[in-house]
């Protein structure tokens, strides 16, 4: 099976682009692959954090320019989370900072998770069944969707592609230096209470 993860503020072309992109890749490999496609008008730096004991992929992070794709081949039984960082600046050694989703001030997250708020794609590969979702449990920074391709069983779309930064309540807003809302905190994090956690899970 192939899973295509889109960082996408404009959903109308997603399914067509996913189908065209996937058809060139899925037949070439038998293992599970993930294709990340950046439909944002700006560069995104994906971050990858494996679950405990699972291998780190692509050093945990890389640069993904607009309209570009990057394919990862997942080992059997791999699990972990992926997220998009934006507003990043790194030097030649890969040291720097991101406005959202930063992982310790490094281009290569190397197993470190992203600083909330960040939209998450969560993936678990099993022996007989795979699981995936898009979660806002750590808040929201970028629209994201997952579309499975050539899988078996009930493989459905998952995503949050609305721009929640545009409608984020004042008490949850994260603003950049120019006062633009760049992320939206989860209520359970902002108010330090688990009573809100069920409001921020999409699957």
TrEMBL record:
Keywords: Disulfide bond, Signal
Highest taxon in the source lineage: Eukaryota
Alphabetized Pfam families for the sequence: Thaumatin (PF00314)
Keyword Signal: yes
Signal peptide: 1-31
Disulfide bond residue pairs: 88-98, 103-109, 168-184
PANTHER family: OS03G0233200 PROTEIN (PTHR31048)
Name recorded for this polypeptide: Thaumatin-like protein
Gene source species: Punica granatum
């Amino acid at each position: 099976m192939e899973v295509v993860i889109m960082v996408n503020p404009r959903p109308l072309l997603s399914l067509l682009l996913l189908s065209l992109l996937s058809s060139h890749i899925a037949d070439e490999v038998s293992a599970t692959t993930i294709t990340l496609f950046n439909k944002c008008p700006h560069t995104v730096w994906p971050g990858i954090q494996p679950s405990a004991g699972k291998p780190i992929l692509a050093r945990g992070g890389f640069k993904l320019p607009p309209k570009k794709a990057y394919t990862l081949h997942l080992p059997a039984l791999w699990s972990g989370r992926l997220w998009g960082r934006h507003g990043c600046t790194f030097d030649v050694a890969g040291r720097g900072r991101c406005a959202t989703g930063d992982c310790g001030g490094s281009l290569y997250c190397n197993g470190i998770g992203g600083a909330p708020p960040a939209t998450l794609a969560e993936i678990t590969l099993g022996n007989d069944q795979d699981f995936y979702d898009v979660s806002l449990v750590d808040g929201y920074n970028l629209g994201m969707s997952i579309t499975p391709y050539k899988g078996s069983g009930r493989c459905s779309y998952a995503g949050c592609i609305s721009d929640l930064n545009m409608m984020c309540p004042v008490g949850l807003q994260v603003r950049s230096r120019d006062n633009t809302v760049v992320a939206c905190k989860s209520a359970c994090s902002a108010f330090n209470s688990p009573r809100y956690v069920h409001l921020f899970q999409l699957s």
